[in-house]
Design goal:
Blueprint (H helix, E strand, L loop, with lengths): L17 E4 L4 E4 L2 E2 H4 L5 H10 L5 H13 L5 H10 L5 H15 L7 H23 L13 H10 L5 H14 L6 H10 L5 H12 L7 H12 L5 H10 L17 H13 L2 H21 L9 H12 L6 H22 L27
Bound molecules: coenzyme A.
């Protein structure tokens, strides 16, 4: 029996949420090109599209914004937890545990999957921002219902009125990262949801999968790579050494895209507008050198920039510290995870694949020599 490793090419669910055309480099959310949605409609409208099936009318958008705004504050017990671990714990684990605590506290969590999705999406940025403030010996700020999802996140992180160009860039980032088919974390969320567990628990499972460097953990490594390369003239040598050691170049390659990740193009444009020219020049030099070296090593496989490469520049430019990059990815993807959970529950069947057993059979227990206890 042939078993495709990593389920490559295997269809395991039907969805109306997202289509990825890996050959053409297109990402579609319920019929709309995600790269056109980014910057043209607010993230909250994209959330409405994914959760409820269509882009909202003005009144519907207002209503969703109000709901999100009302749901942002954290229960005291979560704040206490954040305070207690602020100096010692790694951010994504803290986010994951906080989501778990929120689930434990929400007695209505199974009443409406969409309402739980809204509550969770509203609170995840508050968790990340509050944790970060505790880490820096500052008190968390009360979320502001008058700000958009992206603006409020920036406000809670910095305590300052966010700059409009930063809000626009983060809003676009949120939209571009909102969903991406069955990436490992979303698949895990759907598998968990298929047991009819609650939304929070399924998202806790998703965050576990996001943590790995092959998935959402990559942007901090991209950032560290750029810092380590330092100057455009050093890029080729550095990348050659990286590949010679058998390491992967972070921010490159994708299981599905056989061309440039369409999200990367938009993020590159945003990075060009936002970051200092020297840094942008360094990143674009690393990009072109890496592309060339990877083409030499893999002439038959296109390994191009993925979403993480320019994400790191955009997130840094809007004021998000590198150690919060993956948490910020999780905040964006909460909409996709929960939309998949909603969809899974609408037409559920428990995931229960099988494995090909390759171990021995019929070993003789009685033929074993007895060992002294
Ligand atoms: C994302 C990723 C896991 C997808 O990989 P995949 O579809 O499973 O591809 P494979 O792991 O099968 O790799 C195929 C070949 O390309 C190489 N390759 C893939 N991405 C590479 C990268 N970023 N740098 C160097 N080589 C890479 C592999 O080493 C492998 O080479 P081999 O056939 O000689 O063994 C992979 O490209 C990667 O590790 N990228 C770096 C991490 C990253 O940016 N993650 C964020 C993803 S959005």
């Amino acid at each position: 029996m042939w078993v495709p490793k990593g389920l490559e090419g295997v269809i395991v669910a039907s969805t109306e949420l997202t289509k990825i055309d890996g050959q053409a480099g297109r990402l579609i959310y319920r019929g709309y090109d995600a790269t056109e949605l980014a910057g043209n409609v607010p993230y909250e409208a994209v959330a409405h599209l994914l959760w409820l099936g269509g882009l909202p009318a003005e009144a519907e958008l207002l209503q969703l914004r109000e709901k999100l705004g009302r749901s942002r504050a954290l229960p005291v017990v979560v704040e206490d937890f954040l305070h207690s671990v602020a100096k010692v714990a790694e951010p994504l684990s803290v986010l994951q545990t906080s989501v778990s605590i929120l689930g434990g506290l929400d007695s209505t969590k199974s009443a409406s999957t969409v309402n739980a999705s809204i509550a969770l999406t509203a609170r995840m940025p508050t968790i990340v921002a509050s944790f970060n403030r505790f880490r820096h010996n500052a008190s968390p700020l009360q979320p502001r219902a008058d700000l958009s999802h992206a603006a409020n996140y920036l406000y809670m992180l910095t305590g300052k009125e966010p700059r409009p160009e930063h809000v626009r860039a983060l809003d676009s980032y949120f939209t571009l990262l909102a969903d991406h088919g069955l990436g490992a974390s979303t698949f895990v969320a759907r598998v968990a949801a298929s047991t009819l567990t609650d939304v929070y628990s399924a998202v806790v499972a998703a965050i576990s999968a996001l943590k790995g460097p092959l998935h959402g953990g990559a942007p901090i490594y991209v950032w560290e790579m750029l810092q380590s390369i330092g100057r455009p003239e050093s890029a080729r040598e550095w990348l050659r050494e990286c590949l010679a050691k058998g390491d992967r170049i972070m921010g490159f390659g994708h299981r599905v895209y056989r061309t440039e990740d369409p999200r990367s193009k938009v993020l590159k444009r945003l990075a060009k507008e936002l970051v200092k020219p020297d840094l942008f020049h360094l990143a674009s030099t690393v990009e072109s050198e890496a592309r060339e070296l990877l083409r030499e090593d893999h002439p038959n496989r296109v390994i191009d920039t993925n979403v993480e490469f320019y994400s790191s520049l955009v997130l840094d430019a809007v004021g998000i510290p590198p150690e919060l990059f993956t948490c910020t990815f999780a905040c964006a993807r909460s909409v996709g995870w929960t939309a998949h959970i909603v969809e899974q529950r609408k037409d559920n069947r428990l995931f229960r694949p099988e494995s090909e057993y390759k171990g021995p059979a019929d070993l003789d227990l009685h033929g074993l020599q007895k060992t002294e206890a």
